[in-house]
Amino acid sequence: MGSLEAERTTVGLAARDPSGILSPYTYNLRNTGPDDVYIKVHYCGICHSDLHQIKNDLGMSNYPMVPGHEVVGEVLEVGSNVSRFRVGELVGVGLLVGCCKNCQPCQQDIENYCSKKIWSYNDVYVDGKPTQGGFAETMIVEQKFVVKIPEGLAPEQVAPLLCAGVTVYSPLVHFGLKESGLRGGILGLGGVGHMGVKIAKALGHHVTVISSSDKKKQEALEHLGADQYLVSSDATAMQEAADSLDYIIDTVPVGHPLEPYLSLLKLDGKLILMGVINTPLQFVSPMVMLGRKSITGSFIGSMKETEEMLEFWKEKGLSSMIEMVNMDYINKAFERLEKNDVRYRFVVDVKGSKLVDQ
């Protein structure tokens, strides 16, 4: 047990402006307390929302910004109130590092819907210091927002689960879509989409991958184990698939029409939006009314759901499909991510990279 009272500095890779170019940046970690865990970052996944943030796509970015919110690391020290974690353990940190603890969502242990939640970066902590993310040597995180990594899981493979994995798992649980035999659609086969295929298949669902072209067909069917592949521009195939799906997980992070996909849903089917999109989406109301269909959304998952999902992942013997890169490749990785040139998630080897502020 430690007091964590000494002020600490660390080095991360920060964007300084909407160009999104990351470069080394030395900064002070926030003030610490008895409930905090001091973590040495080993791995951090790269999420499409990191790209939105560093480029100020949503108009809310503050610089300098150290992104990264799929963090796996080692506990270096714990505060005096911390009993769940020990020095040397592998732990994970996701998109949130704070919440009000008093509102209805917090009381129901769905703090991811707290209106005063604190993001792991591009936000301000309760002590007034800006939060900074996982593309850095170390982090300080309140124990509530830290999860244990189950033994037997490869730590680099766990990183994408802390955002992409729980983002898919949470709505399937919440909307009662866990039973085997359901027919699900995964729209978009990127980082979140590939997690969707793996988790839905592990639940015993018949899974259709929906994409704008057939270039990922072999990967979807042979590598990920999807049951069917549907090209959205193929009008005949789309018509044949009408009214066939119980749900669609829509992971597309750019503006797109909803009507073609609403037509694929059965009576009471759900279109679950996952992509962060900064332009309005449109549909005509009969597409929803005539099948009592739902357009809904879901935002990451709670800490309890994250822990549950990690145990599920271990129990089912699943694995992520990742491409490991070093910190000096990170700007190139973001360039490739913008072009959808990754199968299916970049994970940065922070521990194995040398970070020096220029």
Q: What is the top-level CATH class of the largest domain?
A: Alpha Beta
- Unreliable stretches (pLDDT < 50, length at least 5) are none
Overall radius of gyration: 20 Å
| Coarse morphology | globular
Oligomer: single chain
Helix content, binned percent: 10-25%
| Architecture (CATH level 2) name of the largest domain | Alpha-Beta Complex
Individual helix count: 11
In percent, how much strand structure appears in the residues? 25-35%
Distance between the termini: 34 Å
Major sheet: size, sense and barrel closure? 7 strands, mixed
Structural class: alpha/beta
Q: What is the residue-mean pLDDT, rounded to a whole number?
A: 95
What is the chain-wise order of helices and strands? EEEHEEEHEEEEEHHEHEHEHEHEHEHEHE
Question: CATH superfamily membership of the largest domain, which one?
Answer: Medium-chain alcohol dehydrogenases, catalytic domain
Total count of strands? 19
Task: Give the helices and strands, then pairings.
Layout (H helix, E strand, L loop, with lengths): L8 E7 L6 E7 L7 E10 L2 H7 L16 E8 L11 E4 L2 E3 L5 H4 L10 E2 L3 E2 L5 E2 L6 E5 L3 E3 L6 H4 L5 H11 L8 E5 L3 H12 L3 E6 L5 H7 L4 E4 L3 H6 L4 E6 L8 H4 L2 E9 L12 H4 L4 E4 L5 H14 L5 E4 L4 H9 L6 E5 L9
